[in-house]
Amino acid sequence: MTEPAGPPPNDELKDRVRDHWNRHVCGSGYGRTGPAGDVDFRLMSDTRYRLEPYILEVADFQSGRGRRVLEIGVGGGTDFENWIRFGAEATGIDLTEAGVEMTRRRLRQKGIHEQAYRLFVGDAENLAFPDGSFDIVYSYGVLHHTPNTEQAFREVFRVLAPGGEFRGMVYHVPSVVGFMLWVRYCLLRGQPGRTAKQAIFEHLESPGTKAYTVDEMRDLLQRTGFVDLDIRPKLSFGDLLLNRPSAKYRSWVYTVIWRLYPRWLVRLLGDRYGNALLIKARKGGVLSGVSPR
Questions:
Q1: Does domain 12-283 have CATH number 3.20.20.10?
Q2: Rg, Å, the chain Cα set
Q3: Residue ranges covered by each domain of the chain
Q4: Could you write out the DSSP letters of every residue in 102-138?
Q5: Confidence (pTM)
Q6: Strands (DSSP E) found in 10-159
Q7: Residue-wise pLDDT tens digits, 10-22
Q8: Closest-CA residue to 88 (of 121, 60, 66, 119)
Q9: Band of the pLDDT at 79, cuts 50, 70, 90?
C-alpha cells in the first residue's frame, strides 16, 4: 500500500521532540532487558497494563471490531497490537522511524501479517488522510508532546467521521507529578515563582510537554467542535512513583525518595491530583452503520 504523503514537520521544537522519541521509543522502557537494551514485547505489554490498567477502559479495544481506527503515536506498539487483535481496521502513525520500526518488529514477532494493518511515519498536526476517514481516533499520552496540540486536535476532528469518537490521554495539572517537578526544578533552584506547567514543559519526557486543567481541555475540545465530553483526571504510576526511575533519577538520593515515598498519602488525595487526564469525546452526527454508544 502506498504511504500517504503529508507536509513534513520542520520547526525546531518538533525536531527536538522527534529526536527524543527516536532515542527513547515510547513504552519501550517497560520491556528493556539486558545491557544491550533488547526489548521483550510481552514484558512491555504486561508492565504497561499493570502500571496503567485504566488504558483498557479508555481504549475499549473490543469496541473497535469492524471499525476504522487510527492510533496517533504508536510508540512500541502495545496498544496498536490490541486494536488489530480485536478486529479493528487499524491504521497507526508515529512521528519517529524508530517507533514505526519497533511496532513492525513487534507485530512480526507476534505473527501478525502486514496486510492486517497500515502503519506510517506521520505528523499529528498534519494528518495525511481525507476528511471523515475514521470511526475512532485513539492517542494515549501523545498529543501533549506535539508543539501545536490544538492543531492536532483539529486534525483529529477533521479525520473523524460524523459520530466518530476520540479516546486518549494528555497530562493534567494540578498533579502530584507536576508538584514534584516544581519542587525539584523550581523551588530547589530558588525559582518558586515558576509554575508546575513550566517544570513539565522543560523536564517531563520530551521538550515542550504540556499539561492541561480539566477546564482548559474542555474549552479546547469544545472550540474544536467535539461534543459528549468525558474528561477526568486519574492518578498515574508517576504520581505514585511505581515505575523504575529513569537514568537521571538514579542517584542514592532518589533511591531513598523512591523507598520512603508516601504512596498511601497520594492515594488518599485521590484522582483529582492525578497526572493522567483521560478523555473521551465525539464528533457530532451519527456514525454510518454503527449504533451510537
A1: no
A2: 19
A3: 12-283
A4: HHHHHHHHTT--GGGEEEEE--TTS--S-TT-EEEEE
A5: 0.92
A6: 32-33, 38-39, 68-72, 89-94, 117-121, 134-140
A7: 589 999 999 999 9
A8: 66
A9: very high
